[in-house]
Amino acid sequence: MSLPTLDPDAARGADLLVFDREHLWHPYTSMTDPAPVRLVTGAEGVRLHLDDHGEHLEVVDAMSSWWSAIHGYRVPELDAALADQAGRMAHVMFGGLTHAPAVDLAERLVSITPDPLQHVFLADSGSVSVEVAIKMALQTQRGQGRPERTRLLTLRGGYHGDTFGCMSVCDPVGGMHSMFTEVLAPQVFAERPPAPGGDVEGWAEGVRRLAAEHTDELAGIIVEPRLQGAGGMWVYDDRCLVVLREIADEHGLVLIFDEIATGLGRTGDLFVSSQVTPDILCLGKALTGGYLTLAAVLTTSEVAHAISRSESGVLMHGPTFMGNPLACAVALASLDLLAARGWEQDVRRVSSALSAGLSPLAGAPGVADVRVLGAVGVVHLDHPVDSAKATDAALREGVWIRPFRDLIYTMPPYVTGEEDLARICRAVAAAAEVA
Ligand SMILES: *Cc1c(COP(=O)(O)O)cnc(C)c1O
């Protein structure tokens, strides 16, 4: 006969899960029929500590907390930066005031991004930065005497965030368009660009035609360069970016690269924008090494000047937590660490391990495609995943993943070691087999 559990931590954990289930929304979940969640009690290195019905489990985080925790957890340098800044001030308004963390971060961002990007807006999340970028494109057109240009050209298969402006440029089929058709700005959608080595010219012809057709109403072009993330983990040919740059120049459109997911090394370049330079660049996710919410919008001087010539004379945006000092200080420490640790070798090392571990899955039953790009590994199934089954299978291998649609993928922290990378690949394989 087993005795009733007296473990106070287990009881506390159970209480938390009960309240969570009844009162707390999680991303894309139902309040009345929620998917199960697991309790995290801590995280260190590349591991999450889970409380599984009173049992302590340590699992490798193959998601980097939605692609942000590139250095892993409880990173001494980042902890120290945060504590140091907390000892000075946690936050002050950015209206009429400024501070060293924001100025230093802006200076660093200007120095590590392509030369033409000189001006920085510090936003409080990726979605807000995309809203700001869209607003900038529209104000740029107003400043150039073309206020009727308010639409955006974008790509099918994209994802740019969950707020209304962002939703309007997300993939119109996989996104939330059907539910909000009447309230979303009607944007112009080009075909999903071809995979590397594909028919770029054929695709370009279609986009050129679309741009020409809508030239009088278009303000800008917005895309995730090289890798379309949450819209389906689609990798595409960099030559498409050259085509988009040409189209933007030809029609006087503001070219926006949303590098919230791809920025800061994830695809093998520090920024895809170093290959083709946009007029506006959005950064987020990994910017603070996954510690705090922060995003940045960088623009050229042409864009900054055009915005100033619009009727208001100013950029019409200013969130309460703009330039939060804690987030800026930890972002700066994260950028220091990225450079000091040699992110390039790390990403190359992760990439080889993912290629070696995942490419054998190509051709396995139920697998449509396997893609590896930088520190991103994707197993694309030929059917929708059974998310619960896939997650459980990976957890049995000691790995946390979060599959969606027909995709099982990993974006591990750059610092993940060889053994943990092999474990991640085994877990992805196990998940793909049962999903
Ligand atoms: C995650 C993401 C966003 C939204 O960022 P949030 O911080 O979640 O608002 C926008 N664009 C891309 C490409 C993203 O991956």
From TrEMBL:
<protein>
    <recommendedName>
        <fullName>Adenosylmethionine-8-amino-7-oxononanoate aminotransferase</fullName>
        <ecNumber>2.6.1.62</ecNumber>
    </recommendedName>
</protein>
<dbReference type="InterPro" id="IPR015422">
    <property type="entry name" value="PyrdxlP-dep_Trfase_small"/>
</dbReference>
<dbReference type="InterPro" id="IPR005814">
    <property type="entry name" value="Aminotrans_3"/>
</dbReference>
<feature type="site" description="Participates in the substrate recognition with KAPA and in a stacking interaction with the adenine ring of SAM">
    <location>
        <position position="28"/>
    </location>
</feature>
<keyword id="KW-0963">Cytoplasm</keyword>
<feature type="binding site">
    <location>
        <position position="402"/>
    </location>
    <ligand>
        <name>substrate</name>
    </ligand>
</feature>
<dbReference type="InterPro" id="IPR015424">
    <property type="entry name" value="PyrdxlP-dep_Trfase"/>
</dbReference>
<comment type="pathway">
    <text>Cofactor biosynthesis; biotin biosynthesis; 7,8-diaminononanoate from 8-amino-7-oxononanoate (SAM route): step 1/1.</text>
</comment>
<dbReference type="GO" id="GO:0005737">
    <property type="term" value="C:cytoplasm"/>
</dbReference>
<feature type="binding site">
    <location>
        <position position="318"/>
    </location>
    <ligand>
        <name>substrate</name>
    </ligand>
</feature>
<comment type="similarity">
    <text>Belongs to the class-III pyridoxal-phosphate-dependent aminotransferase family. BioA subfamily.</text>
</comment>
<dbReference type="GO" id="GO:0009102">
    <property type="term" value="P:biotin biosynthetic process"/>
</dbReference>
<keyword id="KW-0663">Pyridoxal phosphate</keyword>
<feature type="modified residue" description="N6-(pyridoxal phosphate)lysine">
    <location>
        <position position="285"/>
    </location>
</feature>
<keyword id="KW-0808">Transferase</keyword>
<keyword id="KW-0093">Biotin biosynthesis</keyword>
<feature type="binding site">
    <location>
        <position position="258"/>
    </location>
    <ligand>
        <name>pyridoxal 5'-phosphate</name>
    </ligand>
</feature>
<feature type="binding site">
    <location>
        <begin position="319"/>
        <end position="320"/>
    </location>
    <ligand>
        <name>pyridoxal 5'-phosphate</name>
    </ligand>
</feature>
<keyword id="KW-0032">Aminotransferase</keyword>
<feature type="binding site">
    <location>
        <position position="285"/>
    </location>
    <ligand>
        <name>substrate</name>
    </ligand>
</feature>
<feature type="binding site">
    <location>
        <position position="66"/>
    </location>
    <ligand>
        <name>substrate</name>
    </ligand>
</feature>
<keyword id="KW-0949">S-adenosyl-L-methionine</keyword>
<dbReference type="InterPro" id="IPR005815">
    <property type="entry name" value="BioA"/>
</dbReference>
<comment type="function">
    <text>Catalyzes the transfer of the alpha-amino group from S-adenosyl-L-methionine (SAM) to 7-keto-8-aminopelargonic acid (KAPA) to form 7,8-diaminopelargonic acid (DAPA). It is the only aminotransferase known to utilize SAM as an amino donor.</text>
</comment>
<feature type="binding site">
    <location>
        <position position="159"/>
    </location>
    <ligand>
        <name>substrate</name>
    </ligand>
</feature>
<dbReference type="GO" id="GO:0030170">
    <property type="term" value="F:pyridoxal phosphate binding"/>
</dbReference>
<dbReference type="InterPro" id="IPR049704">
    <property type="entry name" value="Aminotrans_3_PPA_site"/>
</dbReference>
<comment type="subunit">
    <text>Homodimer.</text>
</comment>
<dbReference type="GO" id="GO:0004015">
    <property type="term" value="F:adenosylmethionine-8-amino-7-oxononanoate transaminase activity"/>
</dbReference>
<feature type="binding site">
    <location>
        <begin position="126"/>
        <end position="127"/>
    </location>
    <ligand>
        <name>pyridoxal 5'-phosphate</name>
    </ligand>
</feature>
<dbReference type="InterPro" id="IPR015421">
    <property type="entry name" value="PyrdxlP-dep_Trfase_major"/>
</dbReference>
<dbReference type="Pfam" id="PF00202">
    <property type="entry name" value="Aminotran_3"/>
</dbReference>
